Amino acid sequence: MPHEFEVRKEVELxxxxxxxxxxxxTGPGIDSWFMGRNEVEPREGGVASMEIGGMSxxxxxxxxxxxxxxxxxxxxxxxxxxxxxxxxxxxxxGGSTVLRLVHSGFLGAETWEAEMGALEIGxxxxxxxxxxxxxxxxGRIATxxxxxxxxxxxxxxxxxxxxxxxxxxxDGAAVxxxxxxxxxxxxxxxxxxxxxxxxxxGVRTDDAMYRFVRGYNDTAVLGHNxxxxxxxxxxxxxxxxxxxxxxxx
Length: 249
Known about the structure:
The protein is of the alpha+beta class. The protein has 2 domains: 3-136, Alpha-D-Glucose-1,6-Bisphosphate, Chain A, domain 4; 143-247, TATA-Binding Protein (2-Layer Sandwich).
């Protein structure tokens, strides 16, 4: 029997309610901090869709109050799991905005505790990306890049260490450190470490936010947002997928 769950998060953003709305309620906005390629039909009853890893996921918009509240409910899966999302936007004096997120629904019977733990830490990272967006990329639109690989059994306990090594980054690299990423087959990337957690490593450049992740169920995942003009998203995704697949071959 599926287990009911609820994750609550909030973040204060240096942005107006209208700017926050554009980031969470439009396809280009979501592409600039989240994952996958997104489209949003802007109305209650409309469809929000995400294409990621060759698959498509859809949600129905159940509340549409521009610059105030957005709610969505996903399609129910065969195991009875379903995800619902509510974003509440509250403007503050001085021009900042508090965004409150409620992610709720039902998770699969056997793995719900692990899934909920992954959602808790994942949302912490993604809300931080929102904060970084307004600090460094305000008004810009990103090309999203996603790749995933299934490590061998021997690599499952050292996914992050192996990704750091493949990037040429020391295990001790901390937030604020300048680094040069050296992914094989791609040009060097000069940037600053901007996020470090047990299952995440992030680097920011003038034109990108890079995220390397140990995903749920021990997958190796990356989700980048590239802000440079003229980026070929398919080529960038192919290059990063080739790097990740070779790393965990």
